[in-house]
Design a protein that fits this description.
The chain is mainly beta and 168 residues long. Helix content is 7%, strand content 29%.
Length: 168
Protein backbone atom coordinates (compact mmCIF):
# COMPACT_ATOMS: atom_id res chain seq x y z
CA UNK A 1 0.00 0.00 0.00
CA UNK A 2 1.33 3.44 -0.96
CA UNK A 3 2.27 5.91 1.75
CA UNK A 4 -0.28 8.81 1.62
CA UNK A 5 2.53 11.29 2.32
CA UNK A 6 4.03 10.29 -1.04
CA UNK A 7 0.91 11.13 -3.08
CA UNK A 8 0.67 14.15 -5.37
CA UNK A 9 -1.27 16.73 -3.35
CA UNK A 10 -2.46 20.32 -3.42
CA UNK A 11 -2.82 22.32 -0.21
CA UNK A 12 -3.20 25.90 0.98
CA UNK A 13 -1.84 27.26 4.25
CA UNK A 14 -5.13 29.20 4.66
CA UNK A 15 -7.68 26.60 3.50
CA UNK A 16 -8.24 23.23 5.15
CA UNK A 17 -9.36 20.53 2.70
CA UNK A 18 -13.15 20.72 2.85
CA UNK A 19 -12.91 23.86 5.00
CA UNK A 20 -14.07 27.41 4.42
CA UNK A 21 -12.72 29.70 1.73
CA UNK A 22 -11.50 32.72 3.75
CA UNK A 23 -13.23 36.01 3.02
CA UNK A 24 -10.19 37.82 1.54
CA UNK A 25 -10.25 35.36 -1.39
CA UNK A 26 -13.84 36.30 -2.23
CA UNK A 27 -15.60 39.33 -3.64
CA UNK A 28 -17.02 39.84 -0.14
CA UNK A 29 -13.69 40.80 1.43
CA UNK A 30 -12.76 44.41 2.15
CA UNK A 31 -10.28 46.82 0.56
CA UNK A 32 -6.88 45.27 -0.12
CA UNK A 33 -8.17 42.04 1.46
CA UNK A 34 -10.73 41.39 -1.27
CA UNK A 35 -10.60 39.14 -4.34
CA UNK A 36 -6.97 38.13 -3.86
CA UNK A 37 -5.90 34.73 -5.12
CA UNK A 38 -5.22 32.22 -2.34
CA UNK A 39 -1.77 30.79 -1.68
CA UNK A 40 -1.34 27.24 -2.97
CA UNK A 41 1.37 24.65 -2.44
CA UNK A 42 1.90 21.25 -4.04
CA UNK A 43 3.92 18.22 -3.10
CA UNK A 44 5.19 15.01 -4.68
CA UNK A 45 4.89 15.86 -8.36
CA UNK A 46 4.69 12.76 -10.53
CA UNK A 47 7.97 11.82 -12.21
CA UNK A 48 8.32 13.41 -15.64
CA UNK A 49 6.21 16.50 -14.82
CA UNK A 50 7.12 19.31 -17.25
CA UNK A 51 4.35 21.77 -16.33
CA UNK A 52 1.30 22.20 -14.14
CA UNK A 53 -2.17 23.53 -14.90
CA UNK A 54 -4.83 24.66 -12.43
CA UNK A 55 -8.60 25.10 -12.67
CA UNK A 56 -10.70 26.52 -9.84
CA UNK A 57 -14.47 26.08 -10.13
CA UNK A 58 -17.59 26.70 -8.08
CA UNK A 59 -19.18 23.26 -8.53
CA UNK A 60 -22.56 24.61 -7.38
CA UNK A 61 -22.64 27.68 -9.65
CA UNK A 62 -25.39 28.86 -11.92
CA UNK A 63 -28.04 31.52 -12.01
CA UNK A 64 -30.44 31.45 -9.00
CA UNK A 65 -33.36 30.27 -11.15
CA UNK A 66 -31.33 28.06 -13.49
CA UNK A 67 -29.60 24.70 -13.43
CA UNK A 68 -26.40 24.07 -11.47
CA UNK A 69 -23.46 24.77 -13.78
CA UNK A 70 -19.84 24.91 -12.62
CA UNK A 71 -18.46 28.46 -12.80
CA UNK A 72 -14.79 28.88 -13.54
CA UNK A 73 -13.00 31.26 -11.14
CA UNK A 74 -9.39 30.72 -12.23
CA UNK A 75 -7.42 28.98 -14.97
CA UNK A 76 -3.61 28.90 -14.75
CA UNK A 77 -1.32 27.09 -17.21
CA UNK A 78 2.38 26.52 -17.80
CA UNK A 79 3.29 26.58 -14.13
CA UNK A 80 6.93 25.44 -14.02
CA UNK A 81 7.45 22.25 -11.96
CA UNK A 82 10.41 23.95 -10.27
CA UNK A 83 7.93 26.14 -8.35
CA UNK A 84 6.52 24.67 -5.15
CA UNK A 85 3.43 26.87 -5.10
CA UNK A 86 1.78 30.19 -5.91
CA UNK A 87 1.94 32.98 -3.31
CA UNK A 88 -1.13 34.76 -1.96
CA UNK A 89 -2.17 37.50 -4.38
CA UNK A 90 -0.24 35.94 -7.29
CA UNK A 91 -2.99 36.58 -9.85
CA UNK A 92 -2.06 39.36 -12.25
CA UNK A 93 1.49 39.61 -10.89
CA UNK A 94 3.42 36.94 -12.82
CA UNK A 95 5.45 39.48 -14.79
CA UNK A 96 6.03 41.63 -11.72
CA UNK A 97 7.32 38.65 -9.69
CA UNK A 98 9.56 37.68 -12.61
CA UNK A 99 11.74 34.59 -12.87
CA UNK A 100 9.83 31.33 -13.16
CA UNK A 101 6.55 33.12 -12.34
CA UNK A 102 6.74 35.11 -15.60
CA UNK A 103 6.29 31.87 -17.60
CA UNK A 104 2.84 31.30 -16.11
CA UNK A 105 -0.25 32.23 -18.12
CA UNK A 106 -3.62 32.98 -16.54
CA UNK A 107 -6.72 32.11 -18.48
CA UNK A 108 -10.21 33.51 -18.84
CA UNK A 109 -12.76 32.85 -16.06
CA UNK A 110 -16.56 32.80 -16.23
CA UNK A 111 -16.74 36.61 -16.41
CA UNK A 112 -14.50 36.59 -19.53
CA UNK A 113 -11.44 38.21 -17.95
CA UNK A 114 -8.06 36.70 -17.09
CA UNK A 115 -6.97 35.99 -13.53
CA UNK A 116 -8.62 35.12 -10.23
CA UNK A 117 -12.19 36.16 -9.52
CA UNK A 118 -13.46 35.34 -6.07
CA UNK A 119 -17.07 34.43 -5.43
CA UNK A 120 -19.93 36.68 -4.38
CA UNK A 121 -22.90 34.44 -3.76
CA UNK A 122 -26.62 34.95 -3.16
CA UNK A 123 -26.35 32.10 -0.62
CA UNK A 124 -23.38 30.29 0.84
CA UNK A 125 -22.57 26.58 1.01
CA UNK A 126 -21.06 26.27 -2.49
CA UNK A 127 -18.21 23.81 -3.07
CA UNK A 128 -15.02 25.18 -4.64
CA UNK A 129 -12.70 22.74 -6.34
CA UNK A 130 -9.04 23.60 -6.92
CA UNK A 131 -7.75 20.97 -9.36
CA UNK A 132 -4.07 20.82 -10.25
CA UNK A 133 -2.88 18.75 -13.20
CA UNK A 134 0.70 17.48 -13.56
CA UNK A 135 1.52 17.33 -17.27
CA UNK A 136 4.25 15.72 -19.35
CA UNK A 137 4.50 18.77 -21.62
CA UNK A 138 3.98 22.56 -21.69
CA UNK A 139 0.78 23.91 -23.19
CA UNK A 140 0.92 26.22 -26.19
CA UNK A 141 -1.86 28.77 -26.53
CA UNK A 142 -2.38 32.08 -28.21
CA UNK A 143 -3.76 34.93 -26.13
CA UNK A 144 -6.94 33.25 -24.96
CA UNK A 145 -6.78 30.35 -22.52
CA UNK A 146 -10.09 28.93 -21.33
CA UNK A 147 -10.90 25.90 -19.20
CA UNK A 148 -12.33 24.13 -22.24
CA UNK A 149 -9.23 24.76 -24.39
CA UNK A 150 -6.97 23.73 -21.55
CA UNK A 151 -8.85 20.47 -20.89
CA UNK A 152 -8.70 19.67 -24.61
CA UNK A 153 -4.96 20.42 -24.76
CA UNK A 154 -4.05 18.24 -21.75
CA UNK A 155 -5.72 15.09 -23.07
CA UNK A 156 -3.09 12.36 -23.17
CA UNK A 157 -0.61 14.48 -21.16
CA UNK A 158 -1.92 14.15 -17.56
CA UNK A 159 0.50 12.39 -15.22
CA UNK A 160 -1.54 13.10 -12.10
CA UNK A 161 -4.26 15.22 -10.51
CA UNK A 162 -4.46 16.77 -7.06
CA UNK A 163 -7.59 18.35 -5.59
CA UNK A 164 -8.25 20.81 -2.78
CA UNK A 165 -11.89 21.42 -1.85
CA UNK A 166 -13.22 24.46 -0.01
CA UNK A 167 -16.69 25.74 0.91
CA UNK A 168 -18.05 29.24 0.61
Amino acid sequence: MADPSDEFRLVSPHIDHGGRLPRQYTGEGQGAKKNISPPLEWYNLPEGTKSLALVVEDLDGGEPDGPIVPWVHWVVVNIPPTLKGLPEGFSGKGEELGGEYSKIKEGIHYWKQPGWRGPVLPHHGHRFEFKLYALDDELHFGNKVTKERMLEAIQGHVLGEAVLMAKF
